[in-house]
Amino acid sequence: MLKKKQFVWKRKNLLGLRNLSREEIEHILNTAEGFEQITSRAIKKAPALQGKVVVNLFFEDSTRTRNSFAIAANRLSADVVEFTQKNSSVSKGETLLDTAKNLEAMGSDIVIIRHNAGGTPKFLSKNINSCVVNAGDGFCEHPTQALLDVYTIWKIKGSLDGLKIAIVGDIAHSRVARSDIYAMTKLGAEVILIAPPTLMPPAVEKLGVRVSYSLDEVMEELDVINMLRIQFERLGANPFPSVKEYSHSFGLTVDRMKRAKKDIIVMHPGPINRGLEIESEVADGPNSVILQQVTNGITIRMAVLFLVNQAAMTREKIKIKKESLA
Among the residues of the chain, which ranges form H helices? Predict the structure, then answer.
């Protein structure tokens, strides 16, 4: 268990994990644990965001992240607005900022943004008053995915300090990998990146990680292995000779699992390309926590929505107090 400390959350936006401290990350995990009991109630509701409007502003397809945020907001009693690009004025040429400002004029308190352009959440946070939460921006970050990943590990292992965690696959195009690296290293884990040279970013060692081009070389060392999806939609050319060859060299197979530690944790952010990154027997096997990740995603996102709203309300109180004294 993390030692609970007196801590005041001050960020009204969650744009990424790169600039968060270990203490801030631990505070999110502790807050998430406090919300776990809600999921076991007959009525899974808390009034923390009652009267607040949360907007899911997604410009990329999503199943887990979008629905997880919607469920999290509903469990905190917020009103949820689902933005669909196809059925919006964006299809008529409206800019992202105009869309966001119009939603704010309708009363949005928190905007959850997923966009294919890196830096979009930061841009929005500088131009609207609503809280902004990054649900994935380009190749940059996916902070809540990384938070649910470390939360899942922490719940099972008790701590990340000293753990050897492998992130395997399409590192170059993965915003999940970047956020995972920031969170896991700050919480004391040794992170090992494993991929073909064509899918490994240059100079990535500067982030404080180890690099390997062979899964077999490190398999016996690992406490946790996180298998990434090959993002074919983002690849401009073939990064490896064939799918079969990639699976043979970097796929998590039943045979490879025989050489792993008995208590190794197997993770995947989804969606899974079964038979490519991971064999079905492993994805559905006793070491897999893939569905636990999905469940924990709701709790983590409840914590994030609660904390950014709390920070926004604190700022508003301070502003009102200053104005009354002026």
Answer: 22-35, 64-75, 96-105, 120-125, 143-157, 175-186, 215-218, 243-250, 254-257, 280-283, 290-325
What pLDDT does residue 28 have? 98
pTM given for the model:
0.93
Which residue in 148, 137, 144 sits closest to 267, CA to CA? 148
Q: Which helix (H) or strand (E) holds 137?
A: strand 131-137
Residue 202 backbone zone (phi > 0: left; psi -120 to 50: alpha; other: beta): beta
From the list 214, 182, 184, the residue with the least C-alpha distance to 197 is 214
Q: How many C-beta atoms surround the C-beta of residue 126 within 10 A? A: 9
Fold annotation for 143-293: Rossmann fold (3.40.50)
Distance CA 300, CA 36 (A): 9
> What CATH number labels 22-142+294-325?
3.40.50.1370
Nearest Cα residue to 58 out of 92, 100, 93: 100
Residues 239-276: pLDDT tens digits? Answer: 666 788 889 999 999 999 999 999 999 999 999 999 99
